[in-house]
Amino acid sequence: MRLLSLLLCSALLVGCAGTPSNDPSGTWINQAAIDAARESGRLREALLAYGPNLEWQIDPERQQASYSNGFELAEGRLQAAGDGRWQVTFYGDYQEQLSLQGGQLTQVASGYWPEQRFARSTGQSNGAPLGSSFEQALYRDYLGGDWLIAEGLGQGGLVRFAADGQVQGLPGAERFALCLAGDCAAMSGEHDSLWLQAGDQGSPWLFVHEGDQLRIFEAHNRAQFDEMPEYQPGPQRWLLKRR
Fold first, then answer.
1. 46 Cβ partners below 8 Å, 6+ apart?
2. pTM here?
3. Which site among 28, 29, 35, 208 is 20 to 30 Å from 234 CA-CA?
4. Using CA atoms, how far apart are residues 165 and 79, in angstroms rounded to an integer?
């Protein structure tokens, strides 16, 4: 009987541990956009299809909720609406509705945005800037691993893109940033772009991610000197192949 009681208690504890929490606090990232980018290779297309918002940070104790779309940050006042739902009111009485079910946070479709789904971040996000958890997960899943320089300067060398934005082995670059939204997206149009930087000097580049290949092109500006830059692919500088 004692053994049976212990087994029943263990089963109850396992069941309780697996029950999804209705607590929305913490950081939530648009994992669907990351997965789509990883599978298709087309970053801008994935962000447009599953975004535009990329990350939420929610603090029920302080009645605060904030989101990032990769370009803008917005902070609102959080209010419980019952049955796993919350209302977030922003400046100017603009509101968004959130719902938590099955461990997934949903931003309900509104007059401003389509429905968007978010997964709880598994990284260490305490005190991290809004949006950085999404960026780190994207960098890790989309560009993570070892790349071999198959063509271009440094041919034969290994390149590693780190989740914190550092890059090793790519000649002339120490840091990188993928373009998610805003001016860089407007300037690159339908093309995916990234920023490469060494020291205080950096410049935009265009790229094509196809399976285990990454082609990086010079960004040629077709706009006039007094117009917003309009980048088109120039000569290919590198061909990287994932090992």
1. 33, 34, 36, 37, 40
2. 0.89
3. 35
4. 35
